[in-house]
Amino acid sequence: MELFPMQTRPGRLRDLIQKGPMMVGPGAIDGLTAKLIEQAGFPMVYMTGAGTSLSRGFPDLGLLTMSEMVENAGVIARSVAIPVLADADTGYGNELNVTRTVREYERRGVAGIHLEDQVSPKRCGHMEGKEIVGREEYLSKIRAAVRARTTPDFLIIARTDARTVAGFDEAVARANGALEIGADVAFVEAPQSVDEIAAIPNLIRGPCLHCIAPGGNGPVIGLEDAEEMGYRLALVPGLLVTAIIESCDAALQRLASHRYPGHEGAGMTIADLHRRFGSDEWDALRMP
Hints:
With 288 residues, the protein is α/β, with parallel strands linked by helices. Helices cover 45% and strands 12% of the residues. It has 13 helices and eight strands. Strand 7 (208-211), helix 10 (223-229) and strand 8 (233-236) form a beta-alpha-beta unit. Helix 5 runs parallel beside helix 6 (135-148). The radius of gyration is 20 Å and the shape is globular.
C-alpha cells in the first residue's frame, strides 16, 4: 500500500476507456469509499456529486460550491492510485467559471470531469423539475472546458439532461455537438426505455457513458448488456452511499434496542480496521 499514492495521470483513464473491456466506475463519496473501491479491484473511481452532497448533509440540488466539490475530489484523488473521474455539475457559472473549474480539478490530480447542461442550481439527473440551458450556451461551456485543460489527456465528458426536458432527439444532438467541438465522451442522462439506451451508442458519434441508477427515472440494465450495446464506460454512483445508509440504519436500530452490534462474530478488530488503511506502513516510518 502506498502512503501517498502517486497522482494519477489522466492518460491512464483515456487509455482504459479506449482499449479493452467497458470501464465500470463505482461512486465514492470520500477517501474511505475510494480506497474500498480500489481494494476491490476496480480500475477507476467515480466521485459522485449526489453522494458528495449527501455526505455533507444536503440533497443533490446544486447546493455545494465549486470549491467544496473540488476539495472532495482532491481528497479522493490523493487517496488512491487509480484514475478518478469527478462530477463537476454545470461548471458553476459561465465560460469563465468553467475554465477555472477545469483547472482546479486538474490541479487536484483528477483524471477527468463531466459537465452538464442544466440551469444552475441543478438537480439530480433522476429527479423531476429539471431545466436546461440553450444548446448554444451548453456547447460554449464544453468548448471552454476543452480549451481550459492543460493536457489533452484530461477527459471532458459532456453530459446532457435534455432527454426528459426537450426529448431524445435533442439529447442526441447535444451529445454529438459536444463531441464535434472536442469533448471526449458523451453522457446522455436518464434515457426512458431500454430501446433508447441501446440506440444511444449507435446514434452518437463517439464513446458513450451509461449511468446505472436503480430507483431513478428510467430502466436499469446490467453491465454486460451495456457493454454489448457499445458503451465504453458505466457509472454506478449510488451503490456505496445506499449501502452505507442501509447498514447504518440497521446498526443504529440494533443499538437502540440495546443489542450492541459486534459482540458476536465481529468482522475485524480495531487494529485490523486501521491496518486496512495503511497503519503498518505509517508505523514503519516512526523513529527507532
